[in-house]
Specification:
The protein has about 625 residues and is of the alpha/beta class. It is built from 18 helices and 15 strands. The strands form 3 sheets. The chain has an 8-stranded parallel beta barrel with strand order 6-7-8-11-12-13-14-15, surrounded by 5 helices.
Length: about 625
């Protein structure tokens, strides 16, 4: 085993050095204050670090160990403003809160969207503030197409909005990028999680000829496809050794908190039915693999994630977690029209989570999908009415870590409101209507009221399109489900996709854009591109659901000729809308859509081919074509 000897010496190889450079974060907090206060007042402002000394200062930063780690306290202390934090990171959060009180806002990653007011002085504008986060670990999961400025901008944004860790869902960064990443997270004392669906890749398929027993069995025969055999210690040893080469490159990061070695991303199948594994549920098999690898990696303070997702959402029954293994719960099948626990589907997923937390009490983590362009068919879906209530439910279930999946620039463009509202909800522990209002004020200025109305209406429309509370099993609404709930879902959506209702929403945008000055006009115009996608997609979804129901009548010989013609027209509208929405997306400026959406790329091709595959087959069936 990799850690069989020299265990003490190796114990921190993945955890990295202890959090010792507290002064670096304090110095960074002081530099951030000095930079922004100069931008606000036009003058240099003296910032002192430490409880006393340093001469006269406008702001003093100091660590107060009587406060919780991320907690801060801001008050007047003589002629200065004193910001105390329970740690250097708490001081940094306090510094940003002070700047927020002065009018600074950071609604999206990148300097182009930040709001920095001009003031004559920086006198503390209000009473003493003492604040601590409701959720201890607050993060965002980022899926890279490339390692570039985007990730550094995101890390900067996260710290400014109260987040304290980032998860990078992909392979390790190139060696020349790691120093930039290290500097960014070290200055902000930010935790890092790393990995993804990497487990099968660390078991080379070339081993199958000599060692078929490393691989899973299916119907009595070993196969090199998909996951390993969880009962093979040799396979676990090989995976640990292969993965360690990647994880060692990350050991300089000051807070490498969790590694993700997830099994294959599929619903059903991919598991082993050999005599030793037979009878183990998918959850048991997945946990057994992770346990075996965890026991062979010198993890130190770093944890390994057990992915609870798709067919591993149910709790394992026969396998107990290794001490270094944490729950990573990803309820992708949930309903986004309703908050967690507030509809049939979400009550089921909340109950599954609660049963898992009992087995994994050590910092259980939930990964949400508030910025998942794939799940939401690239539709803009603002979730400000749901996110805060979700956080409240997750806290009540005993969850200590919450993150949400994001796709680089596209998620900034389409789901920026969700970034902002989530950060506020994680700190507060609940919802507040002020969060979406503040976001709109920062990005859209005088048009904030109209844009808030637009986001409210957009949630009603797209949230209803994405409801899954009446479907059975995994409800992927990119594709027709042909389930009984289709009829109810179509009925819910029908009044919202009527042309007059869609025109009302569009008028909110066009009127706001016409009345706005720059940069607000351009920002509203960017949302107008996404609105065209939402309008086309929601109509396509309604037509597809209705046509799916009518196909049952057609196959039973009960569909009239008039209804057959109407159904053909509906299917053609759905296909045309899906393709038109795709063209809008791939034609959008690259700085908005990013590289996850590109002509000929994976997500775009799935839309142009996968979304329309079954409707095209229905069309042939209705028209008597082969």
């Amino acid at each position: 085993m990799l850690a069989a000897s020299g265990r003490a010496a190796e114990s921190d190889i993945l955890a990295g050095p202890a959090i010792a450079e507290k002064n670096k974060t304090l110095d960074f907090a002081a530099a951030e204050l000095a930079r922004y206060l100069k931008a606000i007042t036009g003058e240099e402002c003296a910032i002192a670090v430490g409880a006393g000394g340093g001469g006269p200062a406008a702001v003093r930063l100091a660590v107060d160990r009587g406060l919780a780690e991320d907690e801060y306290r801001i008050r007047r202390a003589g002629a200065a403003v004193k910001i105390a934090g329970g740690s250097p990171r708490g001081c940094l959060f306090g510094a940003y809160r002070f700047l927020h009180a002065l009018g600074c806002r950071w609604p999206l990653p990148g300097v182009d969207s930040e709001l920095v007011p001009r003031r004559k002085s920086i006198g503390w504008p209000g009473p003493e503030i003492r604040s601590r986060p409701a959720v201890a670990h607050r993060g965002l999961m980022w899926i890279p197409t490339a390692y570039d400025r985007d990730l550094l901008d995101l890390i900067d944004y996260l710290a400014k909005n109260g987040y304290n860790f980032v998860t990078i869902c992909g392979g390790p960064a190139p060696p020349d990028y790691l120093p930039k990443l290290d500097e960014a997270v070290r200055a902000r004392d930010m935790g890092v999680e790393w990995g993804g669906h990497l487990l099968p890749g660390y078991l080379p398929r070339s081993e199958f000829a000599a060692h078929p027993d490393y691989f899973r069995m299916e119907k009595g025969r070993r196969t090199a496809s998909l996951n390993m055999c969880p009962s093979s210690p040799e396979a676990a040893e090989l995976i640990a050794r292969k993965s360690l080469a990647d994880w060692e490159r990350l050991r300089t990061l000051p807070r490498l908190e969790m590694l993700h070695l997830w099994p294959d991303d599929l619903l059903g199948g991919g598991w082993c039915d050999c005599p030793l594994c037979k009878g183990l549920s998918p959850s048991d098999q997945s946990l057994k693999i992770v346990n075996a690898v965890a026991g062979r990696l010198p993890l130190g303070q770093t944890a390994l994630a057990h992915l609870s997702y798709h067919d591993t959402l149910t709790p394992p029954k026969r396998i107990k977690p290794h001490a270094n293994v944490r729950l990573f719960y990803a309820p992708r099948e949930r309903c986004y029209r309703h908050a967690m626990g507030e509809c049939e589907a979400n009550r089921r997923y909340l109950a599954l989570l609660e049963s898992q937390v009992k087995l994994f009490p050590n910092q259980p983590e939930v990964m949400e999908y508030y910025q998942d362009m794939v799940l939401f068919r690239q539709m803009p879906l603002p979730l400000h009415p749901v996110i805060g209530r979700d956080v409240k439910a997750y806290r009540a279930a005993g969850v200590e870590r919450i993150t949400s999946l994001a796709f680089q620039r596209f998620s900034d463009w389409a789901y920026g409101a969700n970034y902002y509202v989530l950060g506020k909800a994680l700190w507060r522990g609940d919802a507040s209507p002020e969060d979406i209002e503040e976001y709109c004020q920062a990005l859209y200025g005088p048009a904030a009221g109209a844009m808030k109305q637009y986001f409210d209406r957009l949630f009603e429309l797209c949230g209803t399109a994405m409801e899954t509370c009446g479907y059975e099993g995994f409800a992927d609404l990119r594709y027709p489900l042909e389930q009984p709930f289709d009829a109810d879902h179509a009925a819910d959506l029908a009044p919202l996709v009527a042309e007059d209702r869609l025109d009302e929403i569009e008028k909110l945008l066009t009127d706001a854009q016409a009345a706005a000055a720059e940069p607000y006009r351009t920002r509203i115009g960017q949302q107008a591109i996404l609105w065209k996608v939402a309008r086309l997609e929601t109509r396509a979804m309604y037509c597809t659901m209705t046509a799916g129901e009518r196909m049952k009548e057609f196959r039973a010989g009960r569909l009239s000729e008039a209804d057959r013609r109407e159904t053909v027209a509906m299917i053609r509208e759905a296909i045309d809308n899906i393709n038109a929405a795709g063209e809008i997306l791939v034609s959008a400026p690259e700085p908005l859509r990013g590289l996850h959406i590109a002509r000929g790329g994976g997500n775009a091709e799935d839309r142009f081919r996968g979304y329309v595959d079954r409707p095209q087959k229905w069309l042939k069936e209705l028209e008597g074509l082969k």
